Amino acid sequence: MIEFKNLSLVYPNGNEGLKNINIKINEGEFVVIVGLSGAGKSTFIRSVNRLVTPTDGELIVDGEDILTHNGKSLRELRKKVGMIFQSYNLVKRSTVLKNVIAGRLGYTGTFRSIFNMYPKEDMELAYENLKRVNIENKLYSRADELSGGQQQRVSIARVLTQKPKVILADEPVASLDPPTSHQVMKYLKQINQEDNITTIVNLHFIDMAMEYADRIIGMRAGEVVYDGPASEVTEKTFEEIYGRTIREDDIRGGEVNE
Amino acid sequence: MSNQLPPKPRTPAKVVKRVIILLAVVALYVWTFSSVNINWERVFSERTLENINRIIPQFFDPAWAETGTILVKMVETIFIAYTGSLAAAVLAIPLAFLCASNMVKNKFLNTIGMWILGAVRAFPEIILAIIFVAAVGPNPFAGVLAIAIGSTGMLGKLYSEVIESIDMNIIEALEASGANKMQILFYGIMPQVLPEFLSYAIYRFEIDVRASSVLGIVGAGGIGTLITFAYLNRNWDEVGMILLVIIIAVTIIDQISGFIRRRLV
Question: Where are the domains of chain A?
Answer without folding.
Answer: 2-88+165-250
